[in-house]
Amino acid sequence: MTGTTLAVSPLVVALLAAMALAPLAQGDAPTRNPRIVTAEGPEPFVSRVVTTGLAGPWEVAWGPDGYLWITERLGKRITRVNPADGSRTVAITIDEVYQSRAQDGLLGMALPPDLLKGKGTDFVYAAYTYDGDPGSDVNLRMKVRRYSYDRQMQRLSDPVDVLTGLPHGTDHGGGRLLFGPDGKLYLSRGDQGSNFGPNYCNRNRAQDLPTSSDVHASDVGQCHRRAGGAQGVHVARDSGVAPFAADDVDDQRRRVPHAAHRRSTESGRRARGVLQDRQSIPRHRRVS
Q1: DSSP bridge pairs for 110
Q2: Which residue among the candidates 168, 172, 216, 258 is catalytic per the annotation?
Q3: Are 41 and 78 in contact (CB under 8 A)?
Q4: 110 contacts 78 by C-beta, under 8 angstroms
Q5: Distance (Å, whole) CA 53 – CA 276
Q6: In the list 68, 93, 122, 198, which could disulfide-bond 81, CB 3.0-4.6 Å?
């Protein structure tokens, strides 16, 4: 058809103009998000590899002997590392350790304040998973064991079980050991992976605390199950492990350590068996 004119909407004209000018406007756009503000710290850091070849390093603690004391989750060993040259000395290999998943094996370790102080109490505490079923089945449990350290032989020996039979799930089993300012030994238990993934239908009882009657009814190392509970309550009376009760819930939740997870970068280094040392370098010192 001839002699026909098309009417163009002013809105269409405005949209086409905006599209044509967009590339020009992008040239003036900020190259970084103005909301992100970064600043250098007062001291830069450098890192170096201290040692390699560790089989799943999990707990790292400074010992009073100037060595790094390390639990190897996969290797089932407690190893001492000289931070100056990276040389390693195996203090003990714990054959009873059972390891089959990503969050079990030889886990936490605690060095008491009196270690190597000449008081005759050179003890080291370790937490690990083991098979509690004497038969062919696997009944994954956790225990806390005390060892005596021989300074001359540089070995751990004379094992004494402090807590045994603690239920250990397929995920988030905790296992961190720590001496508190009250001289008590604290053990983190985790949430056993409850309410997540394959454990979705399990009630999360990570914050449950025993009552006073639960505490007083428990013997050393005994596992006392709460009614309807998926997890046990574990109390050691004369072992240095602090019992706690629900009537002191506010105070105890401030004292009981949380079962914190390692960040992904640190987990990756542990999986490779690499231990790194980060040092603070004064700003005026040149690092090549």
Answers
A1: 125
A2: 172
A3: no
A4: no
A5: 12
A6: 68
Q: What is the largest CA-CA distance in the chain?
A: 110
| Sheet bearing 68-72, strands edge to edge | 57-62, 68-72, 77-81, 88-93
d(CA 120, CA 180): 20
Amino acid at 128: Y
Q: DSSP letter string over 103-120? A: T-SEEEEE--TTTTSSSS
Q: Cα angle vertex 123, ends 121, 126, to 5°?
A: 160
Question: Helix H segments across the chain?
Answer: 10-26, 212-217, 249-255, 264-271
Q: Which of 205, 222, 206 is nearest to 214 (CA)?
A: 222
Sketch the domain layout of the chain as residue ranges: 45-260+276-280
114 Cβ neighbours under 8 A, 6+ residues apart: 121, 122
Give the Cα separation of 57 and 52 in Å (integer). Answer: 10
pLDDT for res 250 = 35
Q: Full-prediction pTM beyond 0.85?
A: no
The neighbour count for residue 150, using CB atoms within 10 Å, is 13
d(CA 217, CA 233): 11
Main-chain phi, psi angles of 251, to 5 degrees: -70, -40
Q: Which of 275, 285, 273 is nearest to 61 (CA)?
A: 275
The predicted structure's pLDDT at residue 260? 37
DSSP, collapsed to helix, strand or coil, labels residue 220 as: coil
Compute the residue count for the chain. Answer: 288
CATH class of 45-260+276-280: mainly beta
* Residue pair 273/54 in contact by the 8 Å Cβ criterion: yes
Tell the residue number behind the tokens 């004494």, with chain if given: 160
Question: What's the pLDDT tens digit per position in 257-286?
Answer: 333 333 334 445 555 566 665 554 443 333
Q: How many CA atoms lie within 13 A of 96 on its CB side?
A: 19
Share of the chain above pLDDT 90, in %: 38
